[in-house]
């Protein structure tokens, strides 16, 4: 996923595990209030727009987070 996003022009700054491993569908979390960029990331990955959520926090120094769910093999990075 990191390689796919970087090839698409995104600056991937970190990779790690989400707080749970029981995520059914992949999602994009808007961290900065830039809803349009979060929706574009979702579109580029093939994540349904309804799986874009907003959780703005000054603790995060990123625009968005991508959480891979159990559907990850259906995303564009694997096709």
What's the short version?
This protein has 79 residues and is of the alpha+beta class. 22% of the residues lie in helices and 14% in strands.
Sum up the structure in keywords.
single chain, 79 residues, alpha+beta
Mean pLDDT, nearest integer? 93
**Low-pLDDT sequence parts:** none
Biggest sheet: strands, sense, closure?
3 strands, mixed
Strand segment count = 3
Helix content: 10-25%
Binned strand content = 5-15%
> What is the molecular shape?
globular
Broad structural category: alpha+beta
How many helices? The count is 2
What does this structure look like?
- The chain is α+β, with helices and mostly antiparallel strands and 79 residues long.
- It has a three-stranded mixed sheet with strand order 2-1-3, with helices on one face.
Element layout with pairings:
Layout: H1 2-7, E1 27-30, H2 35-45, E2 52-54, E3 64-67
Parallel strand pairs: 1-2
Antiparallel strand pairs: 1-3
